[in-house]
Amino acid sequence: xxxxxxxxxxxxxxxxxxxxxxxxxxxxxxxxxxxxxxxxxxxxxxxxxxxxxxxxxxxxxxxxxxxxxxxxxxxxxxxxxxxxxxxxxxxxxxxxxxxxxxxxxxxxxxxxxxxxxxxxxxxxxxxxxxxxxxxxxxxxxxxxxxxxxxxxxxxxxxxxxxxxxxxxxxxxxxxxxxxxxxxxxxxxxxxxxxxxxxxx
Length: 200
What we know:
Elements: E1 8-12, H1 17-28, E2 32-37, H2 43-51, E3 57-60, H3 66-80, E4 84-89, H4 105-126, E5 130-141, H5 143-146, H6 165-171, E6 180-186, H7 190-194
Helix pairs in contact: 1-2, 3-4
C-alpha cells in the first residue's frame, strides 16, 4: 500500500462521487488533502476527512475558468506549506446530451474546455509545484470506451482512456520526465444524472 503520510495530495474535482471517495481514501492513508468542487456540496467529503483527523483544504473552483484552475494549484501548495506529491484529475462532465445536428461550435468548445482544457491547465500549473517522482492520475470515464450513449458524441471522445499507461506516460514526457502518469477509466454518476431512463 502506498504511503501518503504527511504528503500533499490534490484532487481536482473531489467534492463528490469518485473524486470524493479518492479524497477520503488519500486522507485515510495519511495524506494532507486539497480538493476542488463547484456544483456539488463537499460537506460529506470534508466531514469524512475531518473524522479521520485531518483538516482538508476545500476550494470552490470553476473548471471553465483557467485562471481559477491555476490559482487552485498554487493555493493548494501554499496552504499546505509543501509541494504536491499526488495530483488526481477527476473534473469532467457531459454537460448535455445533443445529437450532432443540435450542436454548435460554442457547445463543442464548452465540453472541450471542461473535459480537456481544464486538465491541461491544472497539470501545467501543478508540475512546477510537485515533488520529484510525484504522481499524476487522470481519471477517465466508461463513456470513453462506449461512446457515452445517445447524444454523448462530444463527451465520449474527450474521456477516452489510452489502451495502457505507456502512451500516456510518453505523451506527458513533454511536461516532465520525472512524473508518473496513470489514467484509469471508471464509470461514474454522470450517466445517472444526464441519461434518460429509456436510453440507459
